């Protein structure tokens, strides 16, 4: 063989080898990535040839598929669309999917390994294949109250309710919400019109604020400071801290002040109990400075702040306390400002952990997986993540949070039920001193035997579009109503 022919042969062989390597990479290594890519519409079209499984909670169907006469064969429907849309998400030929529709897609489309027996049976018998069902931990009455409480005043915000002993998510409301039914329609024009409306809405409607957005937690973060202080063994509820209306941040000329510039009581000092009740910034800035960054950071980590890759099964945005380069930054961070940012789910998980004697449970949304015939094929087991604080520290924190709640005003108090709580007011934006604050309420009840923990976040003061908006006035009534629903009680 002469040299030119040999070169051509080698080149052809090299290209064949490269082609085989590429095919192997595409069909084996990257197969799942391409299949699960939201832009892969061929998979969605194929899935419309079989009946997709339903999403339900306590027997209430939240998403289902019904037969049609068109080429897509099945129509996805959401009976209570906006109430559950942040959880169920949407399922669209053009715009793929979100929420549980996406996170539990393999179950709903029938390809999950746990449904192998049914797939094999369908193949043998010639029966039309169909998807499995996803049963959620959501309690519909609690979810409805959470949604109604946010929407009746047109609030932008989120509510999360958790069962402390298991981590089951009983409610996850986010507003403003959207109706996923137009996105699931078979008319491309209808889908595109809905998508245009939803993606240009202000404030955004496609975002699940409970898990996809993080916010400065304001004074609710003082629970982390309190936990670190009590766990150190150096502090008790009677430990005295500064009651000054303002202090100078260490090493700076910047002044940090209490809400409205108020003194923390009538004396020169205030107990830790009183400082928490009055939510005194100066006292907690002093406390954090004395404890040091590592103590605060370690305690935050113990409560799950900073954890990466959390899923419920939807992906949860990681919370953070940010960088803390010096003592002044630590003092600002200790009151839930500067770079501290939590999801509402994270804040609910913190109070649920306190309610559970310091034992942190992994929050989850999927209660069980069912076959196409509604037989249970898998059940989620509660997952203990670790001991964030000792049971004795959790008990002391509960007592102090009960003292807080009993000092708060506002609507929605529940007769015969003792709540343990903390409110928060958080500055934000490019001009925080002239922007209505985000407001928080985190709580659990009954304090002596906790059955539910809640976190409420209302963006930018809610209907009180001024700097005087507070967690106690705006967010607390929502949280109490959700607690009442979870406990089967009526607020007064």
What can you see in these coordinates?
This protein is α+β, with helices and mostly antiparallel strands and 492 residues long. The chain has a domain at 222-341: Beta-lactamase, CATH 3.40.710. Helices cover 37% and strands 17% of the residues. The chain contains 17 helices and 19 strands. Strands 3-2-1-6-14-15 form a 6-stranded mixed sheet. Strands 8-7-19-18-17 form a 5-stranded antiparallel sheet. The protein has a two-stranded antiparallel ribbon with strand order 4-5. Strand 4 and strand 5 form a beta hairpin. The chain is globular.
Helix content: 25-40%
Number of helices: 17
* Beta strand %: 15-25%
Ranges where pLDDT stays below 50 over 5 or more residues in a row are: none
Task: Give me the CATH superfamily of the domain at 222-341.
Answer: DD-peptidase/beta-lactamase superfamily
Summing up helix and strand content along with how strands pair, one would put the structural category as: alpha+beta
Order of strands across the biggest sheet?
Answer: 3-2-1-6-14-15
Number of DSSP-assigned strands:
19
User: Mind describing the biggest β-sheet?
Assistant: 6 strands, mixed
Whole-angstrom Rg: 26 Å
CATH architecture of the domain at 222-341: 3-Layer(aba) Sandwich
Mean pLDDT: 91
Note the overall shape: globular
Quaternary organisation of the protein chains: single chain
CATH class of the domain at 222-341, anyone? Answer: Alpha Beta
């Amino acid at each position: 063989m002469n040299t030119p022919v040999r070169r051509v042969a080698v080149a052809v062989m090299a290209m064949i080898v490269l082609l085989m390597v590429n095919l192997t990479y595409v069909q084996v290594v990257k197969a799942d990535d391409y299949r699960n890519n939201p832009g892969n519409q061929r998979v969605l079209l194929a899935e419309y040839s079989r009946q997709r499984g339903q999403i339900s909670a306590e027997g209430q169907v939240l998403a289902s598929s019904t037969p049609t006469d068109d080429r897509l064969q099945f129509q996805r429907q959401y009976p209570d669309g906006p109430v559950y849309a942040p959880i169920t998400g949407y399922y669209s030929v053009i715009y793929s999917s979100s929420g549980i529709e996406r996170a539990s897609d393999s179950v709903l489309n029938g390809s999950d390994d746990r449904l192998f027996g049914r797939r094999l049976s369908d193949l043998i018998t010639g029966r039309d294949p169909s998807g499995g069902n996803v049963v959620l931990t959501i309690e519909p009455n609690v979810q409805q109250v959470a949604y109604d409480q946010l929407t009746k005043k047109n609030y932008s915000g989120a509510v999360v309710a958790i069962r402390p002993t298991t981590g089951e998510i009983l409610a996850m409301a986010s507003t403003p919400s959207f109706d996923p039914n137009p996105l699931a329609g078979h008319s491309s024009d209808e889908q595109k019109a809905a998508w245009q409306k939803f993606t240009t809405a202000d404030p955004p409607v496609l975002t699940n604020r409970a898990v996809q957005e993080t916010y400065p937690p304001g004074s609710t973060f003082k629970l982390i400071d309190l936990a670190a202080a009590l766990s150190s063994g150096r502090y008790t509820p009677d430990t005295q801290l500064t009651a000054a209306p303002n202090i100078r941040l260490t090493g700076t000329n910047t002044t940090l002040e209490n809400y409205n510039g108020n003194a923390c009581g009538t004396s020169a000092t205030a107990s830790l109990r009183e400082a928490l009740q009055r939510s005194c910034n100066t006292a907690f800035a002093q406390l954090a400075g004395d404890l040091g960054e590592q103590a605060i950071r370690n305690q935050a980590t113990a409560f799950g702040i900073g954890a990466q890759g959390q899923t419920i099964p939807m992906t949860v945005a990681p919370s953070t306390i940010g960088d803390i380069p010096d003592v002044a930054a630590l003092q600002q961070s200790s009151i839930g400002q500067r770079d501290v940012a939590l999801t509402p789910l994270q804040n609910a998980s913190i109070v649920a952990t306190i309610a559970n004697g310091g034992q942190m449970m992994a929050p989850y949304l999927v209660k069980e997986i069912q076959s196409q015939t509604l037989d249970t094929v898998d059940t989620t087991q509660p997952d203990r993540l670790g001991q964030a604080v000792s049971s004795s520290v959790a008990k002391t924190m509960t007592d102090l949070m009960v003292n807080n709640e009993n000092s708060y005003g506002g609507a929605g108090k529940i007769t015969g039920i003792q709540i343990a709580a903390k409110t928060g007011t958080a500055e934000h934006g490019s001009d925080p001193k002239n922007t209505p604050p985000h407001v928080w309420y985190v709580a659990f009840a009954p304090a002596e035997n906790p059955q539910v923990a809640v976190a409420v976040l209302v963006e930018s003061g809610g209907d009180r579009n001024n700097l005087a908006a507070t967690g106690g006035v705006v967010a607390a009534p929502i949280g109490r109503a959700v607690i009442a629903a979870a406990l089967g009680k009526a607020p007064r």
